[in-house]
Specification:
InterPro entries: P-loop_NTPase, Sulfotransferase_dom. GO terms for molecular function: sulfotransferase activity. Belongs to the sulfotransferase 1 family. This is Sulfotransferase domain-containing protein. Keywords: Transferase. There is one protein chain. With 170 residues, this protein is mostly helical. It has one domain: 3-Layer(aba) Sandwich (Rossmann fold). It has 10 helices and 2 strands. The protein has a two-stranded parallel sheet with strand order 1-2. α5 crosses α6. The chain starts with a strand and ends in an 8-residue tail after the last helix. The model has no long low-confidence stretch (mean pLDDT 90).
Length: 170
């Protein structure tokens, strides 16, 4: 099992946009943040889920990766995953995989971006959102979406949930 941890703020923003298209969420972003913090959204409560995997991080069959590490050095993460899976790749294969697996390539890939499904949802009237399944993929993009007060609330919430766990999230 491979677990990828993204910071709570970016996860919230991403889930908000996903919920608009996939679940027809129509509330405000501020309301969604409150629901996220309360653990009342899909895939929540966030820290309970994350920490349930973190507690098992030493198991042989579990690899724990931070999203930021993957974004900072995709080739290194490909090598790490390959090692975890007992595979080896040449540098040329790593380069090709890096090109294929980078966010912009994945965003354009119909096998990954689910655009056909979302076209059907829009056409049926289930959702009016024009967001795509893979939207920005940037680390720290929450800074342009969350208010300074909400950022502070997320930081405090994360600190409270991470006390004594040994887990840090950038």
């Amino acid at each position: 099992m491979i677990v990828i941890l993204r910071n709570s703020e970016d996860s919230c923003v991403s889930l908000y946009h996903h919920s608009q298209i996939a679940e027809n969420y129509t509330g405000t972003f501020e309301e969604f943040c409150r629901l996220f913090l309360a653990g009342r959204v899909s895939f929540g409560p966030f820290w309970k889920q994350v920490l349930s995997y973190w507690e098992q991080r030493k198991r042989e069959n579990l690899l724990f990766i931070k999203y930021k590490e993957m974004k900072d050095d995709l080739p290194a993460m490909i090598k790490k995953v390959a090692t975890f899976l007992g595979k080896t790749f040449t540098e040329e294969e790593i380069q090709k995989l890096s090109e294929h697996l980078n966010f912009e390539s994945m965003k354009k890939n119909p096998a990954v971006n689910h655009e056909e499904i979302f076209k059907i949802l829009r056409k049926s009237g289930y959702t009016t959102s024009n967001h795509s399944f893979l939207r920005s993929g940037k680390v720290g993009a929450f800074k342009s979406k969350l208010s300074p007060d909400m950022i502070k609330e997320f930081q405090t919430w994360s600190e409270e949930n991470l006390v004594g766990t040994g887990l840090s999230v950038e």
